[in-house]
Amino acid sequence: MPDELELKLTSTFTFDIESNISLIREILGHSVDLVQRDFIFHQEKQIRGVLFYTDGLIDKEEINKALKTLINCSDEILSSCIGDRMGDELTKNIKTYLLNNVSVNQSNKVQDAIDGILSGDTAIIIDRTEQVIILSSRGADARSIEEPQTEQVVRGPRDGFTENIRTNTALVRRRIRDPQFRVESMKIGKKSKTDVNIAYLKGTVKEGLVEEVKKRLARIEIDAVIDSGYIEELIEDAPFSPFTTVQSTERPDKVASYIFEGRVAIFVDNSPFVLTAPAYFWQFLQASDDYYSRYMSGTFFRLMRYIAFIISLTLPSLYVLLISFHQEMIPTPLALTIASGREVIPFPVLLEALIMEISFELMREAGLRMPKPVGQAVSIVGSLVIGQAAVQAGVVSPFMVIIVALTGIASFAIPNYGASFSIRLIRFPLLIASGTLGLLGFASMFTIIAIHALSLRSFGESYLAPATPFKPSDQKDFLIRMPWWRMDTNAQLAEGEQYRLGEHQVPSPPPKGVDKEGDKGQKPPEKKKSDNENNPPSSKQSLVKIRRKKRKWGKKDET
Amino acid sequence: MKHKGIVFLLFTLSLLLTGCAGKRELNELAIVMAVGIDKGEEGNVRVTAQIPRPSDARGQTGAPSGQTGDAIWSVSAEGKTLFEAIRNLGRFSPRRIFWAHNFIIVINEEFAKTGIQDVIDFFTRNPELRMNTWVAVTPDKAVEVVTTITGLEVIPGEAVDKLLRYSAITSQAPRTTMRNLYSSYLSEGSDPVLTRVRLVEKGVSNEDPGKMNVKQVELAGAGVFKKDKLIGILEGDEVRGLIPFIERLESVILSVSCPNDKSENVSLELRHQNFKIIPGYEDGKPTFHVKLVTYSSIAEADCPISLKDKKQVDEMEKELEELLYNDIKKIVDKVKKDYHADILRLGEEFNNKYPSEWKQLKADWKERLQDAKIDIVVDAKIKNSVLLYNPTKSN
């Protein structure tokens, strides 16, 4: 049976309209959403025509307009066509006449027509020609652009990706009006035939990266791609690692900035999550807010997130190892306080920590899956049971509640959901190692994880860059976020132009006196400039010097 | 990949094999806060450990326990050696005795007279014990000092710890830790001194405010050791001359008489000091030049004085200098004549400057010290009258 279908799909159309119709019907069957509209193309010459489209995927207006043009202009279209077999000539004419509507293609392959129908195009079959006209009439209903649910910002754009791939690419395109910005298309999924687009900035993208991405995408053989998560798992570098080496985001501004940094974005139809590669580990800790708010607050909040990362990774393990192995490391008054809280606890601290961690994860998961009104009930019950009742019943110590709560809050401060999840996963081996072997276990497990993370590559880039390998010019946007007027070089990943800023970008008020005159408009600007040159403020001069020096230092080696 | 998986699995499972070896949780420990060492019967050592009961020592709100009994629980045991006595504590203690948080070791003077080498050895050899534990001697029974609940702190050990920590303002006792004791015991050029504490009935009773019958731990001078044996006691006021030699003289209050009215007093607070010992070597004899420069401020004046008046200030400075000179002189004389123990650490100073000469002298250093020339210079300066620049007087 599949062979038969295959055979039909690879065949070509004939000049006989009846057999063409039955061919399509045989392939697509009698689905209710497959619409067949018969029409008379030319009354006198008795030429029939048939439209095929899938209901719900098309824009009816578009089809009606095309149909009207087709019938009204049938004389003109047919004027140059003679004989029973009009073939190419006819379709070529139709194409030119329909062009004032939408994009039109022609093909005599059954496969093309079927693919078109199934993805929202309209197939127009005219009698006495073997060419089928494929009219682009896509217009499925889609969710409108909304604020991203998973990555919210206080300051910054509020638009998020939708399920429509074209909307998504447009959202990015609106931010990159560069002629070099390219979007290339692929289809993945034998049955789903999902559109996958690869977007990059030619000339800026890392050399060979696009080819590598295409190679990895082309390798995929799968029946269906429902979400970009499928693609992510099929192209990532470290499939056995808890770390994610491909970033997914809902924010078009993030994707645009990654593309400017020389990365590649992968759009997948029907998924509001766009993948970008290569990914560094640290970028999962960076939020778009860092860049949109002023650099001081941006840096501060970024540092807070690094602290949150350390807390969410190590805090429960450190607590467990201190309580069960290294009591001498706790300050005495604190040791007494902790001991008094643990006096009635029947479980060893490791078990207590595991119970609390797991119940916290349960609560989070339950709150997430439940409908919103029920979710609230879950969180109320959860916080009461875990926070209050468990302590009063003497099952967990109040200190453990604090530790788990702190860890939970810290893990929510990590802006990328996937990354926060992978950090939460690593926490468990660390916890068990430190609960069984103390500081020794913690240190060795941490070392193992560190070695593993160091060995990772994401599309040829070291995962822990720019920390190791150390990239001096990328430090501007790593632990701290330098002010924009200092971020003069492009990311090291990016090819092409080295500087992203012009010189003298540090804003400063005009020198005293000149400002007043300038306001009155009495002196022409040239005069003002010459004034400046004659008496340059010393601070400005030194600033220029510093900048020049810096440029020399930060020069990229040309390869 | 399959191979890797097996290795990983084996590694993870091997963690379970440890069975949490060496694990002992915080609430399974008896955390010792203070130790007392007394002479026991028949030449035994008696060790008393003061252990807080966490739930009573800390008002625990969540857990259904606490506030039912005493904050501390003290156990006492004897043994032929210190370690045996400590092991014997285990007979009473349901929890493992844990030493790392110990605040203070109190040694009875009778015991100290027979030598404390075993104490020094045990408390420095054991990795669980900290070197910054306070060490003190007491004329009373160490058991009593350790178990007496003093007013403010719930745990007596903590009370004594804080007493010593913030004792700088009284300068009634040197503050000695295990580290000080150990280093001065090991060093050839010095002998140990230890803080001395005693129990006095100085606390005012809550029931009967007229009486002062509540026992309190008080700082009471220093115990002087020769090698590991207690040989003498310095009372509180004598310690003032000793303190500059071993730590810093800080924030001491001294009172001198008023320049214009000898019956009234002026209290001076020593704010800052500059203390130097310059060793010398003349004709095979060590000499020491001790120089103390202090800067003080007026803390309280019973008579109108102003720092503007140079004559008045000079007079007060002179009296203060004399006072400090006598303090130091007294202690130096005592060391030279009575103790024959170098608690001033002069040997170390000498060693630092004349290492090769030291090698010849160190064998009979204690005798050499007796006829060493030690001259003392005190320079006191009154610099500051704090907030009141002009004297307070009526009209």
Automatic annotation (TrEMBL), chain A:
Residues 545-559 have a biased composition (Basic residues). It is found in: Cell membrane; Membrane. Residues 513-532 have a biased composition (Basic and acidic residues). The keyword Oxidoreductase does not apply. The chain crosses the membrane at residues 303-325, 374-393, 399-418, 430-454. One of its GO terms (biological process) is spore germination. It is a multi-pass membrane protein. Keywords: Membrane, Transmembrane, Transmembrane helix. Residues 533-542 have a biased composition (Polar residues). InterPro entries: Spore_Ger (IPR004995), UPF0353/GerABKA_families (IPR050768). The keyword Transferase does not apply. Its main location: membrane. It comes from the Bacteria. One of its GO terms (cellular component) is plasma membrane. Residues 502-559 are annotated as: Disordered. PANTHER family: LEUCINE ZIPPER PROTEIN 4, SPORE GERMINATION PROTEIN. Belongs to the GerABKA family. This is Spore germination protein.
UniProtKB/TrEMBL annotation, chain B:
It is a lipid-anchor. Residues 23-198 form the Spore germination protein N-terminal domain. One of its GO terms (biological process) is spore germination. InterPro entries: GerAC_N, Spore_GerAC-like, Spore_GerAC-like_C, Spore_GerAC_C_sf. Residues 221-385 form the Spore germination GerAC-like C-terminal domain. It is found in: Membrane. NCBIfam families: spore_ger_x_C (TIGR02887). This is Ger(X)C family spore germination protein. It comes from Bacillus yapensis. The lineage of its organism: Bacteria, Bacillati, Bacillota, Bacilli, Bacillales.
